[in-house]
Amino acid sequence: MENRVGFRFIPTDEEIVDYYLRLKNLGGDTSHVDKAISTVDICSFEPWELPSEL
User: Where does the NAC domain lie (predicted)?
Assistant: First the structure.
């Protein structure tokens, strides 16, 4: 991910749950956030493989 000068992404836990996850679960457009938070299908990996994917 390439950050722009002045770009700040340090959300609180509450901000992540309240805004991003709610929007994602409702099927909203999260493309602007998806650039900062990667999505990993954790069921596709063995537990010891996950740190390399995150």
Answer: 3-54
